TrEMBL record:
<dbReference type="Pfam" id="PF13442">
    <property type="entry name" value="Cytochrome_CBB3"/>
</dbReference>
<keyword id="KW-0408">Iron</keyword>
<feature type="binding site" description="covalent">
    <location>
        <position position="161"/>
    </location>
    <ligand>
        <name>heme c 2</name>
    </ligand>
</feature>
<dbReference type="InterPro" id="IPR009056">
    <property type="entry name" value="Cyt_c-like_dom"/>
</dbReference>
<feature type="binding site" description="axial binding residue">
    <location>
        <position position="67"/>
    </location>
    <ligand>
        <name>heme c 1</name>
    </ligand>
</feature>
<dbReference type="GO" id="GO:0008121">
    <property type="term" value="F:quinol-cytochrome-c reductase activity"/>
</dbReference>
<feature type="domain" description="Cytochrome c">
    <location>
        <begin position="50"/>
        <end position="129"/>
    </location>
</feature>
<keyword id="KW-0679">Respiratory chain</keyword>
<feature type="transmembrane region" description="Helical">
    <location>
        <begin position="246"/>
        <end position="264"/>
    </location>
</feature>
<keyword id="KW-0677">Repeat</keyword>
<keyword id="KW-1278">Translocase</keyword>
<keyword id="KW-0479">Metal-binding</keyword>
<keyword id="KW-0472">Membrane</keyword>
<dbReference type="GO" id="GO:0005886">
    <property type="term" value="C:plasma membrane"/>
</dbReference>
<protein>
    <recommendedName>
        <fullName>Cytochrome bc1 complex cytochrome c subunit</fullName>
        <ecNumber>7.1.1.8</ecNumber>
    </recommendedName>
</protein>
<keyword id="KW-0812">Transmembrane</keyword>
<feature type="domain" description="Cytochrome c">
    <location>
        <begin position="148"/>
        <end position="226"/>
    </location>
</feature>
Length: 268
């Protein structure tokens, strides 16, 4: 019986099978890489009170790649020596740090660390050099601020903050893709810490510029804005002349043009 000769040709389904195997392998690798990228930051167990030593371990595991092993800073991150516990609490608990991506400024998001872990890292950074501390509950207690104090806080806000954050705290655009974030619903301790530390594009308002009592009045004013809607009616996003001018151009001039067209189209 004559033996069959090998033709050297692959089965018609071989190419399709190889393609399917390749796609499955690539998909599995993508899932694995994504799982690593989205993994939770290293944390410590909370069965006991965390210390500055625990904070150092957390810092070196999660922050040292940008800020240096001893927080001395690198070309990718600034030095943290002397920034104080307040800066750490603000940046980490507002989710700005660790940065999700490089850009003109760090964006606010859900915090990646617990308050206990953040306190430990703050204690470690505070141990390196003196710096602004986290404000106490007494400094944040706006219940002691009366109507006159709220009015004073509003005046202080308009003088020192409104040029960037808008008179209604609605935020505003800055240069080179940066922006002043809106202040609606921001926690009192984070407002106080921002004034103390001057994060990103914000100037520092230490206690010599704005006293602790005045900072509390500014926070009380912002709380008042949160609790009271616009007394003048629809606020158009509280963006001032930008939205108001757009409203006039679209509806005001548009209405005039429509009336003019209607009048000229009427028969004599």
């Amino acid at each position: 019986m004559a033996s069959r000769k090998k033709t050297g040709r692959r089965h018609p389904l071989a190419s399709a099978a190889l393609l399917i195997i390749g796609l499955v392998a690539a998909g599995g690798a993508s899932v694995a890489v994504g799982s690593v990228a989205n993994a939770e930051p290293a944390t410590t167990p909370h069965s006991q009170q965390l210390t500055a030593a625990d904070g150092e371990a957390l810092f070196r595991a999660n922050c040292a790649s940008c800020h240096g092993l001893n927080a001395e800073g690198t070309e990718n991150g600034t030095s943290l020596i002397g920034v104080g516990a307040a800066s750490v609490d603000f940046q980490v608990m507002t989710g700005r740090m660790p940065m999700a991506m490089s850009g003109p400024q760090a964006l606010q998001r859900e915090p990646q660390f617990s308050q206990e872990d953040t306190d430990a890292m703050a204690a470690y950074i505070a141990s390196l050099a003196p710096g602004p501390d986290v404000p106490s509950e007494e400094l944040l207690d706006t219940s002691v601020v009366d109507a006159e104090g709220i009015a004073a806080g509003g005046e202080l806000f308009r003088i020192n903050c409104a040029m960037c954050h808008n008179v209604a705290g609605a935020g505003g655009a800055l240069t080179e893709g940066k922006f002043a974030p809106p202040l609606k619903g921001v926690a009192a301790n984070h407002i106080y810490e921002a004034m103390l530390t001057g994060p990103q594009n914000m100037p520092v308002f230490n206690d010599s510029n704005i006293s602790p009592e005045e900072k509390r009045e500014i926070i009380a004013y912002l709380n008042y804005l949160d609790e009271n809607p616009s007394v003048g009616g629809f606020d158009l996003g509280a963006l001032g002349p930008v939205s108001e001018g757009l409203f006039i151009w679209i509806f005001g001039l548009g209405g005039i043009v429509a009336i003019t067209v209607w009048l000229t189209s009427r028969p004599n």
